[in-house]
Amino acid sequence: MRAKPAILRLERGVRRISQGRRGILDVAGLPSVQITVPGRKTGLPRTTSLLAVPEDERFLVLGSNWGSPKHPVWSANLRAAETAEVCYRGRCGAATVTEITGVERKRAWDLAVEFWPGYQMECELSGGRHFRIFELRPR
To answer: Membrane spanning segments where (predicted)?
Structure first.
């Protein structure tokens, strides 16, 4: 996606101006979270802003990677982590990380697509790649 670099710069700017409380998705009326996990190779903290699908006490995040045929790097880091630092609307805390697979994955996918139909379009753009789906549950 050609607009990706510009959107990512805008995201960083909005986060900086709002002191981390809001991102570009929040401005557009969609909930977003910032997750921080250690890089699986370097161990250095890596922070990523993501669209969040809120459900009860948890969030779902999907590795759509803008419809790319490859999984996003952050999803491999999250897959290797048991916990993540999650910031939502300026409040940060630890969350347990669970990759959703099996029977539960279909329900989570349907919930995510109902919440944000763009996931279906991104799946088609990716060639039908199965997006990694993670549950982030505050501790």
So the answer is: none
In contact, 23 and 47? CB cutoff 8 Å: no
Report the C-alpha gap between 89 and 132 in whole angstroms: 24
Tens-place pLDDT, residues 35-66:
999 999 999 999 988 999 999 889 999 999 98
d(CA 92, CA 81): 17
Cβ atoms of 55 and 107 within 8 Å: the answer is: no
> Is the pTM higher than 0.90?
no
Contact 39, 77 (CB under 8 A): yes
Instruction: Show the tokens assigned to 47.
Output: 């922070």
Kindly report the length of the chain. 139
Helix H, strand E, coil C: the string for the chain is CCCHHHHHHHHHHHHHHCCCCCCHHHHCCCCEEEEEEECCCCCCEEEEEEECEEECCEEEEECCHHHCCCCCHHHHHHHCCCEEEEEECCEEEEEEEEECCHHHHHHHHHHHHHHCCHHHHHHHHCCCCCCCEEEEEEC
What are residue 73's DSSP bridge partners? Answer: none
